[in-house]
Amino acid sequence: MEIHRALNQISEIHDQLAKAEFYRGYRSIPVAFSGIVALLAAALQALIVGSGGRTAFVIYWSVVGVLGAIVAGGGIVYNYFFRESETARRLTRRTVGQMLPALAAAVVLTGVALGSEGFDVSLLPGIWACLYSLGIFASRPYLPRIIGWVALFYFVAGILLLSLAGQTASPSAWGMGLTFGLGQLFGGAVLHWNLERKDIG
Fold it and tell me: Which of 80, 102, 164, 197 could hold 131 in an S-S bridge, CB 3.0 to 4.6 Å?
């Protein structure tokens, strides 16, 4: 009985230490580069999509989002399977797991939008930004506190995009590009300044 209680106490202590520890799997350069991907996608949308309409817009930015996730998160996946200890993997699961519900909701809503004729897809950019903001807020206990400003940026940008939805024939490429481009660059700067710069110093 005493051994069982001691093991439970050790597990609780370990959980508290993990919560107090910053997650260092998100790296500034991949995160910032995913922002550059978003800005390039905005510049190239007219050339690639042309006048394909709202459905083409959603498909295009969904592909861009997947590419951005691969750029920003590819190193996390590699490190998880090939380099991290079990303790580090546990922290990775906790931190990334906080983001996954918001990302899953974005995927589901995108599928609904593409499958429903009555859904106004011009709402999606704002919804995407707001959901991403919620994912960052949820991950905040494991990241530098200032990351909350990045989440707030996405939330405010999402509300602005929602307020502008439906005012043009097709959603704005630069609304998406600037929101996710500047947001990821901001996030990369926060990670560098608050984690990596201190590691170097």
Answer: 102
